Amino acid sequence: MSISRLCSLFSLVALTGLAACGGGGGGDGPAPAPPAPAPAPEPIPPAPYTTCSDAGKTVAAASTATNTVCMLTTQGEIVVELYNDKTPITVTNFLQYVAAKRYDNTLYHRVVKGFVVQGGGYTTDGIAVVTYPMIKIEADKGLSNVRGTIAMARLGSANPDTATSQFFFNAVDNSACLDAGKKTNGCDPNGYAVFGKVIAGLDTIDKIAAVPVYSDGLPVTRVVTYWAEQLK
Fold it and tell me: What 3 state SS string does the chain have?
């Protein structure tokens, strides 16, 4: 897998209009030179365990939410509760990817410190996750893009009903621009659909948010979701 290959893939799907990764030649001038070959990525360490920790299961069991999911990343474990009562379309969509193990061995491909960490779109080989049909946006259900919430990434504002597999965690409070109805400073008024929040492992989100990245947000050292499992 080369970084240049990943870059060309990641420019296609973004949270808020991620810029294309390559330079472009204009007018009648010469085309830009191709990028230098990227070095082979470092090996990914094996998953330290294959099912949710006892601590994670205890936190999930104590949640009053109908659904919970546990995920293990290279930076640690994350447990989320999902709000099926408010965002049933989005939760059902997310859980079908979990059940099909399509989040297993996938990358966090976009990390923006002080903003979001985004994953669910590409395997560790840089191959796009096989997706289900796009879903209707549920960004106007009273849930806000505050720190620790999980929301769906999608394409641009021309058609907001474009979310498939990609999700992001809000590393900080992003409600001022990512919630529905925001129209200032270039914010997309359609918003981004929050459908759950982290109930264990917020420190894991902070660790991911702090990793060194390339200019497009791709981590220099791969950050991986080893597996995701539904606990209830």
Answer: CCHHHHHHHHCCCCCCCCCCCCCCCCCCCCCCCCCCCCCCCCCCCCCCCCCCCHHHHHHHHHCCCCEEEEEEECCEEEEEEECCCCCHHHHHHHHHHHHCCCCCCEEEEEEECCCEEEEEEEECCCCECCCCCCECCCCCCCCCCCCCEEEECCCCCCCCCCECCCEEEECCCCHHHHCCCCCCCCCCCCCCCEEEEEEECHHHHHHHHCCCECCCCCECCCCEEEEEEECC
- In angstroms, the CA 157 to CA 90 distance is 18
Dihedrals phi, psi of 46, to nearest 5 degrees: -65, 155
135-170: pLDDT as tens digits: 999 999 999 999 999 999 999 878 899 999 999 999
CATH number of the structural domain 3-15+46-230: 2.40.100.10
For the chain, the structural domain boundaries read: 3-15+46-230
What is the pTM assigned to this prediction? 0.85
Number of CB atoms found within 10 A of residue 20's CB: 13
